[in-house]
């Protein structure tokens, strides 16, 4: 026999049980004063009726009458939320959870997808509006995503991005790793090891964090009186011939944008029998994006991902009580590794 689902009690039924109007129940429920005077005795009678009937208020409905749900949404265009502790976003989500708990907010993970991937708007409306405001992870990338976010912001929904984001014509709130300063500092570490001719090796995708890394490299080289040498390539473009070309031209140190490029560089180095730090040195400018372990403990930047999550919650909470848009860059940590050593002797270029 299929059990009959119990019907959820309504405000009207609670009012009938307590012997008051539905307006009184609403006033008690939302804990506010109004045109109806509610005595302490009446309030207690309404609360008792709610308890006896198992009445649970509809949080979303309460938000429609001017209140807040005290819920923060978390949204990403990535196909799934990370469950592997090695995933790039995992420490960020931990920081978000900690920050939300400290400020007494609940979290709503938006995981619904369509055949064309995850979207903000489905059937002409935004499900992100179920929360008071939303934290957005990951790159915006393609134009469709930027159009959706532009529309969302235009509708007045408070948003804070994890990572620096640019949308022309809009002032945004974001919390990001300070890639530019960290890369500039990394160049200083290479120079302390005697390296003078450096190469920045970046990917072909144009996004804000990549631009910040490159800007930091260019700034450091100009301050040192050196011409910045920058190349943007696909991993498959890194061949043994390319390795040989750079090393023969006197490059002794590389600052590599991400793990994928570093793995391709190492594979090409093996083909021509060179390695770091014997023949040259390199460092990777960030944490791994995927959950795959690194092939070796190379020199790298470590991003303050957990702190980014906590600070993003703080910024959004401030926005929800009328605070201004805010941008924040957090310092990265330099991690020494086995791919950085002294420049080869004779490097006086």
From TrEMBL:
Keyword annotations: DNA-binding, Repressor, Transcription, Transcription regulation
Keyword Repressor found: yes
Taxon lineage: Bacteria, Thermotogati, Deinococcota, Deinococci, Deinococcales
Protein's organism: Deinococcus aquiradiocola
SMART domains reported for this sequence: HTH_LACI (SM00354)
UniProt-recorded name of the protein: LacI family transcriptional regulator
Domain HTH cro/C1-type: 10-33
Domain of life: Bacteria
GO molecular function annotation: DNA-binding transcription factor activity; transcription cis-regulatory region binding
Domain named HTH lacI-type: residues: 9-66
InterPro entries reported for this sequence: Cro/C1-type_HTH, HTH_LacI, LacI/GalR-like_sensor, Lambda_DNA-bd_dom_sf, Peripla_BP_I
Gene3D superfamilies given in the database record: 3.40.50.2300, lambda repressor-like DNA-binding domains
